[in-house]
Amino acid sequence: MKIRLRKSRLSDLSCKMYYVALAIMIVTNILFVESTIEILFSVDRGIWLEKCENICWILLIFRSLILEKYDYKEALRIGFLLGLSVISMILSDGSQLLLNSILFIVASKNIDFRKIVKTVLLSNVFGVSCILFLAYTGQIKANSASLIYDGSRAVTRFSMGFSHPNYLGAHLFIICLCIVFITFHKITAKIVVLLLFLDIFIYMTCYSRTNCILIIATLIVSILANKGKLFSLNGHRFIEDILRITPVMIFIIVMFFTVFYNSNLFGTINELMSNRLRYAHEYFTKYGFSLLGQPVDFSEIEIRSYTIDCAYVYLAIRFGMIWAFLFPCMFVGICKKAIKAKRLDIVVLIVTVALWGISETYYFRIQYNFSLILMGIYIFANGNQLLEGEIDCSNEIII
Predict the structure, then answer these.
(1) What is the per-residue pLDDT across 241-288, written as a single tens digit (0 to 9) for each?
(2) Whole-angstrom Cα distance, residue 284 to residue 306?
(3) Is 129 exposed, middle or buried (0-12, 13-18, 19+ CB in 10 A)?
(4) Nearest CA-CA partner of 334 in 388, 255, 292
(5) CA torsion sign, 311 to 214 to 336 to 111?
(6) Gyration radius from the chain CA atoms
(7) Which end of the chain, C or N, has fewer beta carbons within 10 A?
């Protein structure tokens, strides 16, 4: 069903500015935060990062204040989220990690989520390709490697131009997630082969086990979804309930393990998760959970340089329990709306990134988790368009 709409050129320009800002944020993060690039065109990476982030902020603020219009309720919601994120930034000693994501969320009015996914896919492919090209042509340090012990053997991990193997693994995972989402109901044998190749590549180079498992899981669900009603949500209330509450249940379970961690009880699970449970518990013991943020030294505990690799714990300690609980609650609401709209692709996306947050902190960062933009459903009056339809360049809404 197609409904003809008139879209002004101004509105089209406003959306394009958003997509450009997101693309710049992703590529900038890859080039000047995660790679081994130190200087590009005789300019320090820190200067590049600052300039590019400023451009993103200008684009988002301009489209929000000049090109978009908001009603009273929308303005209050935007002000509330921005106010909370600014407070958390100040209390966490100036970290802008959360504020960047919130700014993209509150500036997302009238955007097309399918175009967001395509923007994320192309940006990641471009950024990763640039790093691999620079690494293999000798322009930057190429085979940065690290050794880990997975409980049975020592494993060599390769970064291939990135400063840490997890960065390369994360972006390849995002590429796979975008491909699965775009082809969810029309997946072909070529797509399956491509995803399996990328999955094996991630395992052989980065040894990112969580990413590999999640890619296989989402691929299986996508294939089953194409087999008629086998994975239909309609009429399967029990499945619907499980999927709907998964983001919050993950949050509760992670918080339980963090607070009540005991090596005798949870030692095996901790080893499988590369000591993530123990590290999270030690940070909790040292700092406790904050309400809206606190400064955290990620190298001071027992004079060892390690960090919190769980997004939920990271949020609860550094940016506050309010944010740590707010994100999964909003994702639960999105799942509920997506199930009602029969959008299994959205549900799978949300559940996948919720699981991803157990072992990585990328969960609340817009550079990685593009599903955060779906939170616009709760901010804007027309937010349900993100689930029920998509706006294209032909001035039509396709339902």
Answers:
(1) 788 899 999 999 999 999 999 878 787 888 878 788 888 999 999 999
(2) 14
(3) exposed
(4) 388
(5) positive
(6) 21
(7) N
